[in-house]
Structure formats: C-alpha cells, structure tokens
Amino acid sequence: MAHTTIDSQMMTLARLISRLNADHDPDAMLQIVCDETAHILGVTGVVAGAYDEQRRMIRYVATCGCDLPSVADLIPPPASPASPTPHRVSSSRGSAAIVIGLWRDEQPVGALGIVLPDSQSGLADAEWGLLSILADLTTQAVINAIRLESARSRAADLEAINTLGRALAETLDLDRIYELLYEVALQLLPDVAGAIFTLFDAETQQMTCTFAVLDGERIDPSEFPPLTLAPMGVGLQSNVIHTRQPFIVGSLEEVYEHANHAFLVGEPGDTTESLLFVPMIARERVVGVLQVQSFSTGSYSMAHATMLGMAANVAAVAIENARLVTDLKHSNLELRHAYNRTLEGWSHALDLRDEETRGHSQRVTDLAVRLAQAVGMSEEQVGYVRWGALLHDIGKMGVPDAVLLKPGKLDDNEWQLMRMHPVYAYNLLEPIEFLHLALDIPYCHHEKWDGSGYPRGLRGEEIPMAARLFAVVDIWDALCSDRPYRSAWPVEKVRAHLESLAGSHLDPAAVEIFFRVIDQSPSPDDPPGG
After folding, report:
1. What is the distance between the alpha carbons of residues 427 and 154, in angstroms, rounded to a whole number?
2. What's the pTM?
3. How far is 362 from 341, CA to CA, in rounded Å?
4. 443 and 387 part of one domain
C-alpha cells in the first residue's frame, strides 16, 4: 500500500472535514468519504453504506476504485451492521478487506470498507488510527445529513398535510376527499403500490371499502365485501380499530397470517410484502382505516405511520363533515317532502270546501313554479313560490260559508269580508316559521300594479315579485275555467284581457313573461292555445 506523508494526510483530512460540513444528502456524503478515504490511505478501493432502519440492513451506495458487485462478498452481511471496531474479512477468492462499523450510542449508522491489494494483508498501526478517525468523521457527517434530510422531509410532509387540510375544507364530495388523501399518501410514503380506505360503522360493526386503487388505477369498492369487526388479535383492520394505533406489516409471512381478515389489492402474481394501517379518527371516534401496501419488504416505518396518521385524521374530519351535511340534506329533504304533503292537504281541504274552484290551487301552483324558474329564481325560492301558490287562498278558511259559497254577486259588506282573506292568510301562516318566506303570494296576490289593490294598497315594485307573477296566473286560470255563474272564456279573449290589465292591475313585465312561458312550453294542463 502506498504511504502518504503526515502533512498530506492532515491536509486531506482538513479537506474532508470541509467537504463534510457542506450541505449534502447522506448518499452524497458517503461518496465524498469514499473518495477522500481512497486518497488519504492510497488503497485499491473503498465502499461505504448507511444503515436502513426499515429493512434493518446496510445499504451500500458509494464506491471508489471498485464496483459493488466485485466486493459484495467482502462487505458485512446485510442482515447486521459491521463491527464497531475495524476488522479484516476475506473472500473465497483470497481477496481481503478491512471493514469498520459506523455506530452512535449503540445504534448502527453505516459501514466503511477498505479493499486491500492482493499483496497486502492488513494496515499499519498509523493507518488503523487514520481509519478510526475517518470512521468517526463519517459517522457524525452521516448523522448530521440524515437529521437535516429528516427535518426537510418532515417540513415538506407537514406542508403537504396542511395543503391537504386546505383542499379538504373546500369540498364535501366524499370521492374527492378520498382522491386527495391518496395523493398525499403518495407524497408521504415510498413504494405505494396500492391503497384501500375502509369506513367503520360502529352501530353495525361493519367495515366497508369506500376507495381502492392499484398502481394509480381505481378499483370498484364493491369488489370487496364488507367485513365484520373481528375480535382483538384477528384481522388487520380490526386490530387498528380496537387499538386506535397504526400497524405495520413488513414481511410476506405476516401478510399471509392475516390475509383472511383483511382487504388487499393486487393482480395475479403480485406479492404484497409490506402493509401500513393507520386509524382515521375524528371527534374521538374511529371513522375508518387507511391502508397502503407495497410489493417490497420493509417499506414502512413508524415515522411513515406518524405522518400518514396525521393526514388520515385531517381527512377523517372532512369525511365526518361531508357525511353530516349529506345526512342533514337528506333529513331536510324528507322534512320538505312532509311539508309539501301537509300543504297539499291543506290546499285540497280548501278545494273540498269550495267546489267551484276544485283543482284551481294545483293548476296555478304548477304555472307559478314555471314562471319562477323562468325569471331565474333559485331552487329554494321556487320552493317557497310553490308553497305560497298552494296556500294562496288559505285565508278563505276564515270567510263565512254564506259569503264564500254565495251563488250570486256579493254586496259591499260581503266584499269587505271576502277582501279580508289575505289578512286571514297572513295571521294564520305568519306564526309558522318555515312558511315566512312563502307569505308573499297569500298576503299580496290581490295587490295591483297601480296601487288600487288590497289589503295594503301596495304599488309597482313594492309588491313582491312572486305575488306579481302569481296575480297573472290566478286571473288566467280563473277566466279559463268554468264556474257555476259563467262558462270559461275563450283563450284569445283571456289573453286580450290580461294584456289590457298590464300597467294597471298587473305588472307589464309579469304579463310578458307569462305569455312567453306558456307559448314556449305549454303545460298539458294549460288550456288549448295557451
């Protein structure tokens, strides 16, 4: 082995220290060590590796003066780190190497190997000392690089989780929530071949697959039948739900041990060798389990479980919020259907009382809804128009039968009573909170554009839009229908009459909209020609 001078060695060590203090990742750091070690000791070849905690083995990544395959039988077996003191190893071919383990606090960091020339049996005492110094410098440099890389990785992971939280705050779509969580899992973890999201129903004790993906391709969740929560110790997803803790499977044997009680994705011939399960917890309750899998051994660590668990919990809150909103919408829909049936019953009761107007309420309601949609009212506003139209004459329940059912014309006193029915409607409906926004039509549909209507004498746009539209519909249906005291008017006569009322009794814009709607898309219930 060639010997360098003390001064040269010291200069090389100084250069090595300077280079190791620069910003490098662990692999680059080990390559620097290989290059400088070969220079300072003048050896045939150098190989260096870092300890892989996930796979519990030395991962050799850097060489100088040789290639890894040629020295594979000279370096320590991958199942255990090298000895913390330098020792000589020999190959079956007669070659030899000096290997020193890199340790810190009884924990393996890596290994450094020196390939000796065939004519060299060992190192001089001074060279052993240099090798020990190099090993100490390398150990600290690798630890620093790993810490720096870990800090950067953690910062990037936390930013990915924060970004996930912001994205989830903008959606209530469960499928989109699953997609966003999967995308973050790909950022946080290595070797993700597939993923399965399972939701847990505590009431039924069932676990249901809601999202599955393999190599980026979605899989129909219905391919996975629901699983019943198994006792503690039986089933991977079940264990995670019972313990509320992550679970890591790092070998093929462990996968097979639990395969009958777990969801797995894969094609024929695929061999799942690593699994990571984390609970999805929201409001102190396990919502489900997030599972990722790899076709490589030992892919996941507790550090991965910690980060993925944080992302899973963020998503769990979003999932719970989405489900609560969905349930609330469903409840509101059922309640709205109940309201509709109730109000239709009230309207039918009024029709039964006044035989002359049977069917009138439903016809005008259908037309009023069409006009409300034509002017661009929201779905909610159209709903209130529907309720208001159904109840437009509900106030007549307070009008005496002698007046309401009188076959002839009403006298002045009787007209005064009849004109009270919008007020009766208001007094009846106003205490019912859910009908507040439906009061415009029952209370105001007898107001007139010129201010001559009743009960309040509103003028022009003081009259609510819904009432102005409905006034046109009400007159149209009344004149187009047979009554005991007269026959239905011809459609053209009714059209001419409505046009004559535009600007006095009726809002001209409402009349125009009405004719446009019935001319463009007549309803089956509209009179012929209407």
Report:
1. 65
2. 0.53
3. 13
4. yes
